[in-house]
Records
---
Amino acid sequence: MAIYPSQEWCDEWKDAMNNDPACVETGKNWGLDFPGDFLFEITPGSGLDKTHYMYADIKGGKCLELKMLDSQGDKKPGFYVTGSYGDFKPVVKGEKDFIEGIVRALFIMKGDMGKIMRNAKYIRAMAASISSFKNEYLGE
Amino acid sequence: MPNIDDFIRPKEWVSDFVTDIGKVLREWGKDKYLPVRQNIDEDWKHHKIVEPLLKEVLVDLGINAAFFPYEVGGTDIPDVCTLICILGEEGARIDSGFTVACLCSVWPMLPIILKPHRNMKLLEEFGPKFCGSELYVGCNAMTEPASGADIENVDRMQGRTIQTTAKLDGDQWVINGHKIWPTNSGDTANLYGVVCTTKKGSTDLDDFAFIYVPADAKGVSVGGPYQKAGMAADMNTDIWFDQVRVPQRYRAHGPGDDLKYFKEMITYGNMATAAMCLGVMKNVYEIIKKWTTERIIAGKPLKEHSMVAAALSDIAINIEATSAWIHMYAREVDRPDIYGTNPWDDTLVHKTRGLSTFACKAVEKVCSSAMDYMGSYGYSREFDLEKHWRDSKMLGLWMGGLGLKQMENARYWYELETL
């Protein structure tokens, strides 16, 4: 089992997204005429010692690249999501809902909200895929 | 410089994400609706302008899908009441008639959508249609020709005036009756949520039934649209049900629960009504602020005259009070785990009647007062105030009207026993 967060975990999530028919189908228009990449900033706590960054390049329902970064660097992603490790963990475990986390401001998402609304089913599918495989967690 | 985003909205309860959803609707309205807003009144009969715009909001912007569970193609956004209030406010700032058409699409579905009483069997049947790529619209068929407010006065009338009947014949409901005024009636809706009684004249609350009827079912017919003073984007007609047969499973829940979740719909209707009043008032604020800043009277801007300033202050106060009240109650509706009251409980049904009353009176006052200071300009179509003035009157007339709203509110606060 991969440790969340790690490059091994990123590889598993990438495979999960690319093998999930719901992600592929509902995401077919995602990122085609706008930047559809995500940068996740996971802030410390609950076993995580420092801020981690995870970059996902997604286009047309396929995750092209998913990797850990040391810093945001010069990335200017279409969507930037920030949250604490303590809040991300239950989402990855499938115990809490990512969309609910955004609506209730546990996670902050910045980006073109019009694109999110027009592709909400894809965001839902992507969020569901995150908990579709088993992991290990820091601090547990 | 203060603007409409500086009025009360508690950030602790309304996240930036939800506010941003509202702003997407705002931007869409600016690009797509405002350029045609002054033509909507002439579109009352055929909705040639309105219907494609309805598709853009309900389908392309995902407003229909926002409320349905993920399993049936929706996005299942939580804190539904807050979301409805934000959408109602932003939408009504553009056009309250159009907004009621949008929100009423999902209104009759709330009894089977909302947690903890989801009816997944029906959602699996209807959800994909509402969440698909084609326009699919709902309509809440409550009011009848002889009995508008009576039907929604459930506590006292107990359903005895409902004339639309549902009789079980084998595994089908046979529905007969006549509804009038429902939003999205005519050719707009694909699915009706119909308030029926299983026994005419009964005061047994178990006989209250809420049954879904596809608009293309045999025996359903509609009249032509009514031409109203305003709210032209909201299509209102008669609907007749003549020996209409639908499967038994199309009843939302069953005896007792249908009424319970109908009352929840009333709570949501009150909240959405208040939110739409707020949206109208915010646009009026924008209009009157611009007017009184640019209009020079006796050598200074109109707003610099003390009498005008007092009226402008009243407009702002009404907006602040309505907004604060809406978000407080929306929180109560969304979080029964904190407040201990369910949205179908009389407490919330009756209290939100008070909010709706306040907001409806406030919007009338605000529109009228703004017109007083714009004079004939406010009364003319090109300044957009008169449309709000005409449209917003309707906000206080539906769902039983102000009389029922006030009576139910007093019923709670004063423990009325005879009214």
Note: DSSP finds 16 helices and nine strands in chain B.
---
Amino acid sequence: MSLRSARRASQIFFTVLFFWFCVVATLGERFTELSGWPVNLFLELDPLAAIATLLSTHTLYRGLLWALLTVCATILLGRVFCGFVCPFGAMHQFVGRLSLRGRPTALRLEKNRFHPAQNLKYVLLAFFLAAAALGPGGGGSLLVGLLDPLCLAQRSVNLALLPFLERLGIAVRGEPRLAREALAIAAVFLAAILLNLHRPRFFCRFLCPLGALLGLLGRFALLRIGRTPEACTGCTLCERSCEGACEPTGRIRTAECVLCLNCLADCRHGAIALSTRASAAGEIPLPDPGRRAVLAAAVAGAATVALGRVGGATGATWSPSLVRPPGALAEEEFLSRCIRCGQCMRVCPTNVIHPAGLEEGLEALWTPKLDFRAGTSGCQHTCIACGRLCPTAAIRPLRLEERLGTAEFASRGPLRIGCAFVDRGRCLPWAMDRPCIVCQENCPVSPKAIFTRPVYTEVRLAEPLIVREAAGERIGLAAGRLPPGRFATGDYYVPLPSGRRLRIRAHGEQAIELAAAIPEAELPFSGSALSIAIRLQQPYVDPERCIGCGVCEHECPVLGKRAIRVTAENESRHPRHRMIL
Amino acid sequence: MAVSCTASSPARPSRRESRIAAAILLFLALIAAAVLREQSRPHPAVENFLHARALAVGTRGPAAAGRFALPEGTFALSPPERFDRDSLSEKINGKAELYLAAGFVRLDCWRLGLAGAEDSWIEVFVYEMGSFENAFSVFSAQRRADAVGLELTEFAYAAENAFFFVHGTRYIELIASGAGEPFTRAMEAIGRRLIAERPALQAALTERDLFPSEGLVADSIRRIAADAFGLAGLDRVYSASYRTDGGEAVVFFTRRDHPDQAAALARSYLEMLRAFGAAVAPAEGMDGAFRVEVLDTFEVVFTRAEFFAGTREATDSGLALELARRLEKRLEEAGHALR
Amino acid sequence: MPSADPLDRREFLRRATRAGLGVALAGGLAALSFDASGPSASPPERAKTGLPDFSLPQAAGRIAVARGAVRRETLWLALQALGGIESFVGRGDRVLIKVNAAFASPPILSATTHPDLVFELARLCYAAGAASVVVTDNPINDPASCFALSGIGPAARRAGASVVLPAESLFRPVSLEGARLIRNWPVLTGPLAGITRLIGVAPVKDHHRSGASMTLKNWYGLLGGRRNLFHQDVHRLIAELALLVRPTLVVLDGTTTMMTNGPTGGSLSDLRETRTLIAGTDPVAVDACGAELLGKRPEDLPFLGAAEKAGAGTVDFRRLSPREVAA
């Protein structure tokens, strides 16, 4: 068995594993659910995510330590991760291979020749690392998540591909999940895939900041591809399928070599070897993107973060619509950790976490945000899955006691992610004279954060009601007709002169039966006008109790723009956003 | 120290190369094994997941059931479910008709577990009946024989493993998976929470005052929502049992919207009894009343204003007449008061 | 196949060394920065606990009440009754005077500390040998206009004192032990750096939320951030402030008292000539005494009782046998 076959086996293995991890990353105990699968494995093996968070937070969180494995493997063996492990790389390689299948050798040589623009990825790396390292308040922003191949792939599969398949009726478990931003996320993913038609492994060669990082780390790799001193006939067959476009026949560009080992397998003359010796034809060990370009990119990276915050998005002009998952760190710390992988969104049992779009600003693009309309419910106040799964602790791992504010957390109270506000212009009992207490009924905290106060209001009738006769609990009408059944729900009353009201028990078109007899002294005269009052229970929010879970917003029957909505006011993660003492 | 592997031709990898390739495959297998082993240990995110899912599923869609603050020591074991007139039989097949006939609006039910006691749960049924009278109908129609009065509401009783009570327009059943003190305490707490949730819904049974008090068997008042005594159209009937030295009987009345309706109802009732083979004759000593003898029991029925009323299943004809007279008196008094 | 070429061999050794160093470096860095538990709940608590205590133990519990219409006179008299400015300020002391410059309103409206008082106090401090005198406040309105229009700025400068206007860099989060409100809250600590004596000077004013604004409420001007949040529980806040800030001396100016429509006032008809100046080392007692000028009893002002309960001073100022002096 050749090394190339082993490489292919490895790629297939890791790609299948990657997709499997995406599929199972929903909350549950079954084999096909999260159960115990290490679904963050690829994100944790990603040294770019690790180094970027190391730069932004000066710490290496828990599972990110696995990246050390990749780093060490790369230092010793070169970009073995790109060639053997990276599932995104495998996808590119597969599509690129298809695109060149059966094409003339000359074209293939042309497509697989080194292109100076491959240096772009080093420039991008400088940009992203500077953005991570140099924030206005210390830690920068992990914009790298937008282009990091593993974050990109994970996000695309989690938030576009799988929901899309579910919608088609494939791999559905329960109702298909909604995925906001699926189109934009898929567009990036598809663009990256389709660029392979232009050149194989386009993303890896030109754009991948992780590839750039690994290329640099592999500077002193002990084993490397290169020419043997034996005779080379110059047939260039070895460059026909070169995935990295590293030109193994000439002075090999070791930083570009992704260890696809195609050259090794394709050479019929024993002129190419994986060896501890340097290539007999010489090596170009380091790329040359140009010092100025790298410096400019670094400055641009730092400036991007600084400029993004000039508007005050993490300070005075913070977005109230940006309700973060429970346990999310304060916004600046959050942005210095979130790699936009979409794991929290995938695992959320109520599908309430969605990627933020551009409405929350460029810096927050595709970071998690709660959308209570899209979810199957609000954010369950007994659920802590997202923080437990987050690979970088942008959402802190919580204990349930902390979320609920019990045990040793009792003095701090429950964790709040926002606060509900009643929109009195849209709320049925506030604005429309219609009884409704859905939000109050559904409020899950105890004691309830939503309470109601009863008011009685006169009902607007199509025509005035004139009394024909009244006796006991009955009132007959001389004029005006009542819509059948409408006032018999128990919410309607007939007001008496004394201010008392008697509930309407039943009514016909021109007869009303009350729940109790009208006192003799208050019997309406024949010919007098009669009004009907409705008892409304108008909802109020107690900000001390409200945790911002959004169940009320989700259940509100005003389905478009809800009449009760949660915004990030009063969220625990920001003492500055405190609304009440 | 240094390892180099050279492929002499693409078809024939060297032995050294093959060995390294095999080592790579072995490495992959090891990874697969490690991943599988990891799978068997619950992920920290999955902890507490049962609880979260139970609550999550329950609030799916606009038909979600109203929830209330769970008393200490209980937790949601199943998602809340909601049933309407069309789907009620999915939950209580066979008994649905009883509720539907009495004006059933919707049922919310869910199962609560008792902390610290495995396989112990209480199922909560909240029947929204639309009116207090309807709720009372289903409550009284199902009153258990071994009932013990409860102070929860005016109309409440306990069986060994269950609580039944009317709260406003709602009829509520709490049914435990076993009997005993922990269950009773939990049911009591749940009942109080349910009542506290909607404090404004109390109502009184004014019709109770219409029954003559002497001989009335405690807690025997029923409201029959529809098809009382097997007669279609005879609905909204209140009945109660009586026990005296002279024997036993049932007293009933129903109030129609108009005296004519009451009279018509009386006629069809008597017709039905005649068809059964009953002997019907004017009652002696009571104007407009009829004495019925059917299968060794006696009845006296009459109409007064909007009321159709009478005694049934009396073991003694004298008792039937006497109770009918006393009922007539009460109805007349009440009729005045109502006017 | 081992390499026989010494050049190749040397090259390999060089690479192996560097790769080994790289692995060691990566491993070391990872081990150093490894964080198994993740970040803590709130942004790292950088808050200082409390502020320095500026009170003088030997001068505790002193209070003097001077009657008269001229502030320079009554101040001098009151200080004399307390043992003279020298009992509070000595050679080389660096003094911070915390004024009430909350609003950009003229001295005549008595919504701010009177400039005469600032001038005289600063002058007396220098006369007693103070090395420097600094005047500061974090006003409600624009700081520069507040200090200019209230006359405090010019008066301070005339006396040789410097005025420190609040700037973001001068605030540090501060927590008060056991407090519910002052926790990790930005406090104007910059001007306190190097200070050895702290004197609070405030006018007597009616206050819409707290009932009265005197020397205790004056410390509110040391708070930054969105401090108006605290108006939801203003009495507790003032009590916590009384614990947080332990001054050397406070001067309460009741020469003219803002009786109504406080704390801004705005009309001369809100004012009454009460011809009283109170100085003392127990701000709670001073404020309790000052409450009488507003026609209030100490019980009417819950923050006084709360401050006493917290251990910040004495409400029953008569127990401290105040010295009464008149011009």
Note: The first strand of chain A starts at residue 60 and ends at 61.
